[in-house]
Design brief:
alpha/beta; D-Maltodextrin-Binding Protein, domain 2; 10-stranded mixed beta sheet; globular
Length: about 325
Amino acid sequence: MKRITARVVCALACAMVPAATPYAQQWKPGPTVEFIVPAGAGAALDSAGREIQQLLRQRDLVRSMVVINKPGGNSSIALAVLDQHAGDGNYLMTLTTSILNNHILGTLPKTYRDYTPLALLFREYIGLVVREDSPFRTAEDLIRFMRDKPGALHIGVATSVGNHIHVGAALPLSKAGVRIDQLSIIPFKSSGESISALLGGHIEVVAATTPNLITAMNSGRLRVLAVGSPARLDGPLAAIPTWREQGIDVVTSSVQGVLGPPAMTPAQINYWGSALAEICKSDEWKEFLAKNQWQPNFVGPEQAGATLDREYREIKEVLVALRLVQ
């Protein structure tokens, strides 16, 4: 009898203790999430951040979310916000390849490993553009000339020497035998400015990402020689050959994702990993990427760091060849 009573008492006591269900342990953001974009309003990074904001709201994955633009300082101004909110899952930031480049170049003291990579969302590809009246009709024409005179042509990039666009231009040229440490690179504040300079005859070549390649093609006065995608893109760039098609086995791209502050909890990381995976499955997100010729490339928090590690090594190899770092 005592044994039965003890069991009953134990069962009643356990029933009074809240069960350790996933819901009891689940973290949720709020009341307001701040999404930091290391670029000005209207930029490609800004448009992606606002699309993420809209889709998270539509699916009730956040109660309130605001996008805050913090351009400048090689992303250090934006990262300073995450530094001030360590462990707080209500602060997110656009993760770009430029964070890797700037750390390798020594212009940014911290890198992605000092924060919490939550997800990689997509890749954007980089191509080369010339004027329609350029003597270079194909990428092969350009490379043949540059092998003999690597510094004779002025190549416009946005927004700084050594960034992902510079690397995206230099990598295929290097694979083709061009002395990339002798390139004449001209940085501009935006791809819009570099393309305007190309149209004005001030420079001969522009390296730019896919949204800007579409803009260049729509002008009717420019020719895209190559795009760094692994296979031909759809839509407006479907007629543009890849580097691989032209005999240079290289992909030139940069990743974009979401970064969290240092010291996030496992529950916070799991929440954002699941939330971002959910919006990336939506038709609205797929349509948004297609409009900009961005390639879906979701990588969750478990693998994001390792993927960025590989990117870091590859970027450093090119920057060393450019003699921008030791």
